[in-house]
Amino acid sequence: MKIENKSLAKALFGAVRIEEDEGFLFPFRFSKRQLERRQGEEGYLIRARSASCMTIDFYTDATQLEFDYRVRIGSGKKLCFFDIRVNDRLMFHTGKMDILEDAGHIAFDMSEGMKRVTVYLPCLYETKIGNFCITDGAVFEPVKKEKKILFLGDSITQGYSSDCPSLCYANQIVRKYDAICVNQAIGGSMFNEDYLDGEILPDADMVLVAYGTNDWAGGVDIEGNATAYMNKLVGLYPNSRVYMILPIWRKDQDRENAVMTFDEARQVVKRVGESIPGVTVIDGINFVPHDTSLYEDGRVHPGDIGFMCYAEELGKALEEHEAK
Predict the structure, then answer these.
(1) E strands within 98-251?
(2) Are 165 and 283 contained in the same domain?
(3) Which helix (H) or strand (E) holds 60?
(4) How far, in Å, CA of 156 to CA of 172, rounded?
(5) pLDDT of 49-107, one tens digit each?
(6) Is 224 helix (H, G, I), strand (E, B) or coil?
(7) Which residues are CB-contacts of 159 (< 8 A; sequence separation ≥ 6)?
(8) Backbone conformation region of residue 293, classed left if phi is above 0, alpha if psi is from -120 to 50, else beta
(9) On the CB side of 231, how many CA atoms lie within 13 Å of its CA?
(10) Which residues pair with 206 in a beta bridge?
């Protein structure tokens, strides 16, 4: 039984808009206005079209699930994988590495009875979904969610470099709160107030901001940029809990750039966050153990186990602050 795109779109979470392309759903996590502001920045636009933190989340008694996909590179990492979780257990994982684009078909057999099925789209690839089918006569009921989370950040928050999209730290936090989310993290990003848009998830319960590591590496005016960014963000989201996550450990943090050391940069970001009413600062330096084997690239980007550590520690910190 084919699920029509209009019905499928109601179960597709993580997009701010969804278009159709030759019968395929094409979800975006940025508005047209946001993308227009970055015209000419081709690398940014490619990464902005990735499907980070997008899921198809529904209840069903189907025993079969299948769909077609089309993907195209949306990051500097060629890791294109899908996950399927059933009742929050990872039951299926498939994908490819080192591709620029691809088209294919996924089929998955499930046990009988009602269950929650969550299909995780690739964090690092533009993804289109079509011909989504389940067992004839089966129930297809989109999950209803209440809590809303907006993620803002760089490549680590986008999902570099998790093989399993369901294990990037943002998706793990989304599961913890069973939330609707929009992940507007982009690889290579820094604090830049020009790209904030208060129309993106304006009623977010939480806004999680994680910049700083690229700002330091780029030798920019961290204090000025972070201050302008966070002040504007708090003004756009006055009813949200805003959390600023300080950069995690990186292997090359002991080197000095033209501006300051990594620790000095972290302290600048911390000072900015603590100076702005409505912002809660969370120190991420020990979220991932300082062990290069937990980083996919051996220096900056956590792998799956590193992300599990990150999400566990961030989850504890959020619990502590949300309880206040």
Answers:
(1) 101-109, 115-120, 125-134, 141-142, 148-153, 180-183, 206-210, 241-245
(2) yes
(3) strand 55-60
(4) 13
(5) 999 999 999 999 999 999 999 999 999 899 999 999 999 999 999 999 999 999 999 99
(6) helix
(7) 52, 53, 123, 124, 165, 168, 170, 171, 183, 185
(8) alpha
(9) 8
(10) 149, 241
What phi and psi values does residue 229 have, to the nearest 5 degrees? -65, -50
Tokens of residue 313, six digits: 């520690």
Same domain, 187 and 295: yes
What CATH number is associated with residue 207?
A: 3.40.50.1110
For the chain, give the number of residues.
Answer: 324
**CATH number of the CATH domain containing 65:** 2.60.120.260
Pull the structure tokens for residue 106: 């996924």
Domain ranges, residue 295: 148-322
Last residue of a domain, one of 79, 108, 142: 142
**What is the C-alpha separation between 168 and 143, in angstroms, rounded?**
21
Give the integer Cα–Cα distance in Å for 5 and 172: 27
Is residue 65 domain-shared with residue 130, that is, in the same domain? yes
Q: What is the pLDDT of residues 191-244, one digit of tens each?
A: 999 999 999 999 999 999 999 999 999 989 999 999 999 999 999 999 999 999
Quote the tokens at residue 17. 């808009």
Same structural domain, 87 and 159: no
